[in-house]
Specification:
Blueprint: H1 2-25, E1 70-71, E2 77-78
Antiparallel strand pairs: 1-2
Length: 86
């Protein structure tokens, strides 16, 4: 019984650590104020869905035509405004 309790506690610690890590990666404000029915909030994860700077701000990638591109966590390469959501 003690082994089962230890396994559950260890798993809980691992999940908590993973959640804390992912929370930091989603530094983004909610642009919708709740009164604008046309505003649709689409969450993103920095450096997985979009390219972000160290402060969590979405930024464009290397200029188009320079040959530079960035590999995002979702497996897509991006450059210019293709690294950001409009």
């Amino acid at each position: 019984m003690n082994r089962i309790a230890l396994a559950i506690a260890t798993a809980g610690i691992a999940v908590t650590g993973a959640l804390l890590t992912s929370v930091h990666a989603q530094a983004q404000p909610t642009p919708c104020d709740g009164f604008d029915l046309n505003c649709v909030y689409v969450p993103y994860t920095c450096n997985y869905d979009v390219l972000c700077d160290a402060a969590g701000n979405v930024i464009p990638g290397p200029p188009l035509g320079t040959g530079g591109r960035v590999l995002l966590g979702n497996g897509q390469y991006c450059a210019g405004n293709g690294c950001t959501r409009p």
